[in-house]
Structures are given as structure tokens and as C-alpha cells.
Amino acid sequence: MATQQQFIEFLSEIEPSPSTTQVCSAAHRTLRGKLAAHPTYKAIHRETYLSGSYARDTALRPRVSDGTLRRPDVDIIVVANHTQYDQPSDVISMLRRAVKQSGYEEIESNRRSICVTLGSVDMDVVPVIANPWQPGGWLIADKSDERWLETNPMGHNDWARAVNKRANGNFKPLVKLVKWWRRENLPHLKRPKGFIIETMVAELMDYRENSYEELFAKLLDRISTEYQWLAATGQVPHLADPSVEGNNVFSRVKPEDFKRFYDLAADHAQRVRRAQREPDPDKALVQWQRVFGDRFRKPTPKSGGLLRTAAAASGGMGLAFPAKAVVPPNKPPGFA
Known about the structure:
It is globular and about 65 Å long. The protein is an alpha+beta fold. The protein is built from eleven helices and eleven strands. GO terms for molecular function: nucleotidyltransferase activity. This is Nucleotidyltransferase. InterPro entries: NT_2-5OAS_ClassI-CCAase, NT_sf.
């Protein structure tokens, strides 16, 4: 079996590095400041905030693809003073024009956002407006269908914090383990990923468990048992969006893609249990590396002392990080 220390060190390995978080923080703060100060767009601009995995503290270190380090993604929500009567394509075009006039050159218009590409980071900038039919609700522009759709990115941020608190701080580390496992073994699978993974983990995890090894093992067990019939009959799960009523987070997952995901989970559920039963640490490590890859290593020899100093990750908003934080020995850096 693996030790808690191995998982703590592994989580430190797969989290974004301090330099990555600094680059992302500088990039999004600069862009948000320019939008707020734009000569004409500032009249439309109400506020901005972060969404996505960086805001929810579930991001992984950027991956290497074909020998090239891929840029990290940061999602920026722009709350604008448009109304539901404005054409979504016009709203996205107006945002793109303001960003272009702010000095950015590589800008791509997507269905519901614009993507701003810098040398070291990609930023998805997403305009939203207040939902006039639902107090506290939000609408996102879809330029392909020229309609406004319900959304709630801030609700997702709040939901993730609440789930992590309920799980005694173990939800976010478990999400990172599952995301890395999926990336390592199914790198080209389009879905499920991202927020779908987070919702599934929240649905199936053991909220009383504190061992990272057992949390991961139990989650794979639950996937293999809960979704066996769906995978066998060519169906996908239905998981309610925690912040948008009536939305199924699995709605865009193809049955064949889910079957590949399920088959891997079922196979590795057995492999993980074999690794746990293996008395030889070196042989157990081989099994774990087949699950997580070679970044999962032997534990570093202890150097004494009950507390260690580590870089602390943001609670979500702003990607601004304190210089140092003292982290208990049962938590990885970023989970103080």
C-alpha cells in the first residue's frame, strides 16, 4: 500500500507551480484592469471575477503535449450591462473589440467567449448578464444560436468551497487526483473532464474518509458499481448541475466516451486494490505508477519536525498567493 505522505508529495507534484500561478495572476489582473479602464467599454463593464478550475483551486500543472508545454487556461467572467434583447454575437464582438483595442493581438472568438492567447497563458473571457427572470441568476451569450442561456459560474465557485468544507478539505485534493489519473491514461478523450469530474467526485466520494489512497480507491469502486449498467447499455449518467436548475452536466458526453472512461475506472479499481494488498512497497509502487504515472514516487525520507513550510494556494478568487503558509503534515501544499 501507499502512504499518506506519498500522496501529499504527489499532489505537490501535480499542482500548478508558483511560477505558473504568478504568470496567470499577472495576466488576468492586467486584462481585467484594462477592460475596467477602457474608454468606452467601461460603461458596459460592471465587474469581473475568475471562474473555472483556477478559481475553484482544482487546476493541474500544465501538460506536456508532443514535447511542448501547453499554456495554462484561466477563465474570466465579465459581468456586463447588456440586456437579453442584445444579440449575443454583438455582445461577444463588442468584448473582442475592446480587448483588441487594449493591446492584445491573438484573440479568437468562440461560441460563448473570446480566447486571448499570450506566450505563457490562455485566457477565456466570458460575458454574462443578469437574468431578468431569475433574481440572482445569470445568462451567457451563445452566438451560434443567437440566444441567452442560463449559467452561474459564481455559484460553481461557492459550491466547490462548500463541498470541500463538508469533505474536511479532501474534495479538492481528490478532484486533482482524479483529473490527473484521467489525463495520464486518457489524454485524448474529450469528455468527461473538468467540471463534470468535479460534480461526479462530489456525488460519489466518501465524505468521512481522510486517507487520500482510500478516497481514490473508494471513488473508483463507486464508479465501477454505480455506473456499470449505464456503461453496459450505452448510456451516460445524469448528474444535476449544482448551480443551474435543470441542467445535466453529462449532457454533452458521448456514450462511447463515457464507456472508455468507465472501463478504465473499473479496471483501475481492481489494480488499486491489488496495490493496497501488496506487502512489498516497491511492487506496490509499480502498480501505482501504472495508475498515476511516474510522478508518483517513493516517499521522501522524513527530515524531522511535525510541521513543514510550503507555498499555499489561493482559496479561489484572484489567484493572489500569500508568500508562505505553515501546512499540517497531513495536507499537501495548497490545502492549508
